[in-house]
Amino acid sequence: MLNRRNFLTSGLAAGSLGLSPALAHKSGGKYVLPQKYMPREVSLWNRLPPGEIHVYPDQFWMYWTLPNGNAIRYSVGVGRDNLYHSGVYFVGAKKEWPEWTPTAAMIKRSPKYARWANGQPGGISNPLGARALYLFTPKRGDTFLRIHGTNNPRTIGVAVSNGCARLVNDQIVEFYDRVPLGTKVVLNPKANAGPEHS
Fold it and tell me: What CATH number has the domain bearing residue 170?
């Protein structure tokens, strides 16, 4: 069984792009994240400023932009239905093994979350996973949107969340260390082609 201590000392906590395919032991047994979902450096046709995060929900891709017109592309799960909120944000907080507290709207949609109304402690079974980046706007402050981890790789490449973008835990650990506070985050609208060369 994979717990927080085992995760931190295993190969899943690798800090490079040579990451191991993530494994999950829930929702029907072992699952290996397909190679197509692994991070890779790509060339952008639409040059973006370096040091930004851009999410393209239709492709389930998130880009960390680099100074040379390239980017590191990650595969993510995104918000389902009308729970994906496009816009421009910034990383206002970062937390390791964050506590998760469902909003009142989440509890209304899924009453099973009521047991965590006062917060679920961080850990391998927490929905925010190993790391979380908290998305803010100048006007609203914390928007309750996150870029976070998950121990369920089956949710990558799927519109499944309550509005957040998720990476598998080994990838969010590596990504978390790249991203400073204040980083610009663009959640692009749906039906918006990505910036990558075809």
Answer: 2.40.440.10
Whole-number Cα distances in Å, 169 to 47, 141, 151, 154, 155: 28, 26, 6, 12, 12
Which residues sit opposite 78 in a β-bridge? 159
Residue in 25, 54, 85, 164 annotated catalytic: 164
Residue 138 forms part of a structural domain: yes
For every one of its 198 residues, what pLDDT tens digit does the chain have, with 9 covering 90 and above?
333 433 333 333 333 355 555 544 444 567 788 999 999 999 998 889 999 999 999 999 999 999 999 999 999 999 887 889 999 999 999 999 999 887 888 888 888 888 877 878 888 888 899 999 999 999 999 999 999 999 889 999 999 878 889 999 999 999 999 999 999 999 999 887 788 854
54 catalytic residue (yes or no): no
Active-site residue flag, 164:
yes
